[in-house]
Amino acid sequence: MLTPYDVAVCAAQEAGKVLARYFHEGFEVRNKGVADLVTDADVAAERRIAEIIRSAFPDHAILGEEENSGDVTAEHLWVIDPLDGTTNFAHHIPHFAVSIAYLHHGVAQCGVVWNPIREDLYIARRGLGSTHNGKAIHVGSQQQMSESLIGIGFYYDRGAMMEATLAAIGACFRRQIHGVRRFGTASLDLAHVASGLYGAYFEYQLSPWDYAAGQLLVEEAGGRVTTCTGAAMPLKKTSILASNGQLHDEMLANVREPYVGLGRD
Ligand code: IPD
Ligand code: CA
Ligand code: CA
Prior knowledge:
265 residues; alpha+beta; D-Maltodextrin-Binding Protein, domain 2
């Protein structure tokens, strides 16, 4: 009998084939909002994932970015981003991923993040750790921000949230960090924290499909994930701070204030 873990890995790899085909053969790009793009690959990949999940588990709910608005309170819930990093994809940059998480009663049980072009497969299983292409991964041992590279992300906002993010980046640089990186795929940013490449990563707005799998990757690799105010992650649009744990309080002291200034929870 297939388990949710088997189905998550299979669906991610099948969706990856769909993405790779569009990436190499061509696709249409449309604007969902200012600077927020979608391609026919996003939609086709989500359809493929939903088809695989439904054929194995017809009664499970699916929450996906493009077409599936499953109930987040469902006992069995799949949270999927068929193409995380659409802006990279649209500009022919091979740094994007399929992100799939399976949750039972709201608690992530497994998460898969798959970059089909670079063939990077990250898997997290509750209680069993995180892996990258089959090898166990762990968060880094950085004790202070001044020893760390920090991942960042910008939501599709060109106003107050963008300014607040820039203020937080300035605060991070004043802690003498090694640098910031903005690679444009939240699930892979979280995989980079889980693998120890980044000491921490933050972004002021993400949706559950962006972080559900990556959050489990970080936690199972020994790290910590909260909102940018230090609260437990809710299963809704929220800010995110992921770290190796050791850097969490120092990071919070730098990213919390600009975020709170936006007047969000
Ligand atoms: C986006 C990417 C990006 C992050 C944005 C997300 P999408 O997802 O993860 O890195 O900065 O906030 O919305 O739109 O490419 O699926
Ligand atoms: Ca995304
Ligand atoms: Ca997406």
